[in-house]
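Hi all, long-time lurker, first post. I run a small reading group and we've been trying to get comfortable going from sequence to structure in the token notation. Rather than ask abstract questions, I figured I'd post a concrete chain and ask someone more experienced to write out its structure so we can walk through it together at our next meeting. Sequence below, copied exactly:
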Amino acid sequence: MTVDLSVRSDTGKINQSPVSSVASTIILSQICSLSDLTFYIPVADFDGDIVRCRFASTIQECQDVCGNHVSFLTFDGTSCSFTINSNISNVTSGNYAVALQIEDFTDSSSSVPLSSVPLQFIINVNTGTICSDGVYLVYPTPTAGEKLQAQNGYLQLHARARVNNTNVTKFHIMSPLNFTMSAIIQHGTNEFEVTITLDSNGEDPNATHVMCFSAETNES
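-- Answer (accepted) --
Happy to help. Here is the structure in token form:
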């Protein structure tokens, strides 16, 4: 992990490293039709920098899990995403380690990162018994790019996920602001929701902050 602790000329503050929040294990079931499926690693940078991902490559970054151990996936470092490039039923079942570095850059042409943060997780390929359709964030979850206004330093919002044949076990929230999150409440048979309360007291009242949501199931 590398960070730059000097004061930036553009923001007048120390650089904020990019952040990510992902399940420790991502499960891919061999009984599902997953060819060409793309899944994204949630990343955010609260300075508004360009974020790119790459496979970890040095022993200081990844010890014995360096390189690409998931050749059945096509990796896109610009979007921090993986696309399944083969029939998953032909992939040997088991655990595959993924070691990435999440890096922020001042602009799209820059090749020197301001900071480099490690992210490691497991992709589990199994035979499975049920094929889940995945997780969908639905209303009243804020839509991508939606802007919400805090009132007197506080903002309350809701994140809701819809699933089939599984349950949501955890919500991941990325925010530079202090927040509290309620317990998960189930709506009907396939929707799960949390209430999030943000506290922006002490922050610049005119500042804009990025917030990201994702949900984890007992199969992902």
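A couple of things your group might point at:
The chain has two domains: 19-126, 136-217.
Residues 59-62 form the longest helix (4 residues).
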